[in-house]
Automatic annotation (TrEMBL):
Gene3D superfamilies membership: Nucleoid-associated protein YbaB-like domain
Residues covered by region (Disordered): 1-39
Biased composition (Basic and acidic residues): 7-21
Designated name of the protein: YbaB/EbfC DNA-binding family protein
InterPro entries cross-referenced by the UniProt entry: YbaB-like_sf (IPR036894)
């Protein structure tokens, strides 16, 4: 294994592990949060991941809002609930920037050529160098796939419509509600509790349509982790297969 490749592998593994530890340390508490619009007509409760769990519309909401303003009040309440999570996370990231990242954790080292290369027979130093080069190419390819999956996920939008068309929701690429429409004739006669229930279910469906793409991201992340697990510590790997003293 060339010294440059070995150094790159070592730096990549350690940097990724340190950054992951840092980000894990600034995650906001896994608790529910609520937000309300300025007039207190709508309250939205979200889960730890930002998913909408409940939309409550006050029985006297028309005393402060017109029918045309209700959808905007829902979006405002949701935005306020989500902004608490974002603010806590950004504060944690800012504090992290002023701190030294944790040391990289030791990675378990594969014990034989079967674990590293998928071979049942021993390998010579020459074969090991060639196979490690191929393994490094796998790492680069897996990282590129992960970045492409993340880019695709970040650009993904979602939408949902209630069965009768009473509520229409569109979720933007950043996770924000870019469109929320309430059918006027339905809204004019709907009970506040029913408005809240139908808006909740439609918002949840739209969010779920965005998150369905997360499976691709998770799969590529697992591929990177599995490949890096096979590499282990590149310096130890080199010595084990006779590539360095």
């Amino acid at each position: 294994m060339s010294e440059d490749i070995r150094d790159e592998l070592h730096e990549l593994r350690e940097r990724n592990d340190r950054e992951i530890q840092g980000l894990e340390s600034v995650r906001p508490p896994a608790i529910e949060r609520e937000g309300s619009d300025a007039r207190g007509a709508v309250t939205v409760r979200i889960g730890p991941e930002g998913e909408v769990r409940d939309v409550r519309v006050a029985h006297d909401w028309r005393s402060g809002l017109t029918d045309d303003e209700l959808a905007g009040a829902v979006v405002e309440a949701l935005t306020r609930a989500q902004s608490e999570v974002a603010a806590e996370f950004l504060t944690g990231v800012e504090e992290l920037e002023d701190q030294e990242l944790p040391r990289a954790r030791p990675m378990p080292m594969p014990q034989d050529s079967g674990e590293v290369f998928g071979r049942t027979e021993p390998v010579t130093p020459g074969e090991a160098e060639r196979l490690i080069g191929e393994l490094w190419a796998e790492v680069e390819q897996a990282m590129a796939s992960m970045e492409a999956s993340l880019d695709g996920f970040n650009a993904r939008t979602g939408s949902a419509r209630s069965a009768g068309g009473e509520v229409v929701v569109e979720i933007g690429a950043g996770g924000e509600v870019s469109r929320l429409e309430l059918e006027p004739r339905w809204l004019a006669r709907a009970h506040p509790a029913n408005i809240g229930r139908l808006v909740t279910s439609t918002l949840h469906e739209a969010q779920s349509s965005v998150l369905r793409g997360f499976g691709d991201v998770a799969e590529t992340v697992r591929a990177v982790q599995e490949t890096m697990q096979r590499v282990g510590d590149p310096y130890t790997l080199s010595r084990r297969f006779g590539l360095t003293p």
